[in-house]
Amino acid sequence: xxxxxxxxxxxxxxxGEVTLEQAKSWFIYNPDEKLxxxxxxxxxxxxxxxxxxxxxxxxFYLRLTYVILFSLFFYYKSSGIYFLLLLLSSVVDYxxxxxxxxxxxxxxxxxxxxxxxxxxxxxxxxxxxMNFMIVTYNxxxxxxxxxxNVFLPVGxxxxxxxxxxxxxxxYREEIKPTKNYIEYLFFVSFFPQLxxxxxxxxxxxxxxxxxxxxxxxxxxxxxxxxxxxxxxKKTVISNYISINFVDRVFDTPMNYTSFENLMxxxxxxxxxxxxxxGYSDMAIGIALxxxxxxxxxxxxxYKSVSITxxxxxxxxxxxxxxxxxxxxxxxxxxxxxxxxFLFPSLFFFGLLLWGITNINTSFIPLTIAIGSIxxxxxxxxxxxxxxxxxxxNFNLFxxxxxxxxxxxxxxxxxxxxxxxxLALAVHKIFMELFPSKKEGPSWLWRFFSILITFxxxxxxWIFFRARDFETALQVINNIGQxxxxxxxxxxxxxxxKNVFLLMxxxxxxHFLPEVITDKMKFVFDRTPLLxxxxxxGFVYWIVYATAVxxxxxFIYFQF
Length: 559
Fold this sequence. Notes:
Keywords: Acyltransferase, Cell membrane, Membrane, Transferase, Transmembrane, Transmembrane helix
Shape: globular
Transmembrane segments: 35-53, 111-129, 141-161, 181-200, 220-241, 338-357, 363-383, 390-407, 443-464, 491-512, 533-557
Pfam families: MBOAT (PF03062)
Family: Belongs to the membrane-bound acyltransferase family.
Number of helices: 23
Subcellular location: Cell membrane
């Protein structure tokens, strides 16, 4: 017979005595121990939270307030006192949104919208880009400005974009504002997607607040399937590959062989996918347990047949946000704008300057700069609708440049965005010159399309992962010196056997046909309760083991 004493004895034997200091640490911010979905602490706190949440399911404002308080605590455990920044930002945006909604004059509405955008981007710019701008100024003009000791609050980019979407949609009259501040704060601070997305649109999320809470058996099955899958992606695949291989190579690429640099690039591609899609799966699953449906954020992106297809499958909530609120705002495919032409022009000027300053060392940088400009110009000069394509490609390039800058303050992120922008422009003109056949591409064409797209994306990830632009070039240079040495490759593979097996497991899982994943889900849904308990127990063990080893933060927390 199971008694309280037997449970207590089991807990002490497996986890040890819980001291007062340990209990205090559960509720006090520690920058080295953030509250992550893949930690035992989150699991324990969430179970207690969810138990009380069940009793509040038939209430409205009490339930919203309860979730808000837990969300603020969750953010406090991630960013400390900076949870007050979230509150300050929400108060300002809520007030401005009310003014915009109640103002009849369009010009006045626009003024308040501009104020909101400047405040939001100004706040984001200070915390994320201040030191980048200081370093850039010092390098360009021999300045001596000191760097600021700036702490980057976790997920500031995500909740800033989410808050901006709310106020812009009110300005566009796509939605009405919430009835009060509590409802708005619930939307902005909702903890499952607060720190790393998916970025939720107000018009998709707010209607769910007012609906009756209805959690079906199928919702629970879907949620558990997503959470279990997300935990395996993050704790089993991503963490192990990162700690035992990828981080080591990218930290000091010159200490490793060409083959190791190449495999680390492939490793990072599956690591970032498992890390970010794993977090998104857990966020969507946890939200589903609370009765809210968040949008899918990934759809097997490495199966993409083109770079355009990739951005329909990767970080869908961000790409949709950039399209609706940036690309369309600067003109889209309709008209040009100052901003749309400014950023690509600045980038290509900087690229040309980089090529010229390095001409004494090598002609390669200048060749790359001139080649990039020629390719971009040809992407609209070869089009039948030159003017429209020119506008579209400049606006698209601007969107991707700023999308790269959103991810981080560094030349490597700008180059990453530019590469994707250039590839999108090239793909558009390619599709115009060689339109797809009505019967669709052959399997061979599709295979090579996926292969080329995947390797281009992996190449771009090198810039994304490297700590700076110079390190990215070192990795690329090392890979470029690769020679066929099967015996050395075999020795490396055997030395990193577990890493490569997990990489293979991650890629096989990703490329599984949809019919197989659907069958897996079908079997899971019909699994007896006892077996589901065993699976959950195994996943809990994974979470606990990860917590003991020290949990790795999610990659997108830094953005």
